[in-house]
Specification:
Elements: H1 2-8, H2 16-39, H3 46-68, H4 81-99, E1 101-103, E2 106-108, H5 110-127, H6 131-155
Antiparallel strand pairs: 1-2
Helix pairs in contact: 2-3, 2-5, 2-6, 3-4, 3-5, 4-5, 5-6
Length: 171
Amino acid sequence: MENFLDLTFPQTTLPISSILARLLLAAVLGSLLGMEREWRRRPAGLKTHIMVCMASATFAIVALETVAVPEFQRESVRMDPLRLIEAATSGVAFLVAGFIIVSRGEVRGITTGAALWLASSVGLASGLGFWWIAIPASLMAVFLLIVVRRLEIGMGAERRGSGKLSDDEAG
C-alpha cells in the first residue's frame, strides 16, 4: 500500500511550505494588480488577475517538480520544463486577445490585456521563487496603472488623435 501511495502521490522536491508560500505570493501580487482593474470596473478584475497569477505560479512549480520525477529522467523521455512555461504564456496570450476589442476604429482593452500578461509573468516569477523579481514588477505596475493614468489625463486626450479617451485608455 505504501508503494502505491508513493507512486500515486510522489514527494515533492520543494518543501510544501515553500510551495504554499509561492502560491500565496502569487495570489497576493495578483490581487494587487487586479484591484486597480476592479476599481476601474474593467472586464478582467480582481479574481481574473489572481487566477492568472496563481495558474502561472502553479505551472512554474509543476515544471520544477517534473524535472525531479525519476520517470522523466530516463534516456527515452525528454522533459523540458520550459515547455510548461511556454504553454502558460501561450494560454494567457489567448486569454488576453479576448479582452482586446476593436470597435469603430478604436482599440480597447490593451491596458487590461497588458496587466493580465504581467500577472502571468509575476506568477511565473513567484512560482519559480524569484520574489525579488515578482514584487518590484507588481509594485511598479500598480504605480504605472494609478499614477501614469493621472499624467495621461493631465496631458489631454488630443494626443490620442480622436480627441477623447476610450474607457480603457482613461484607466
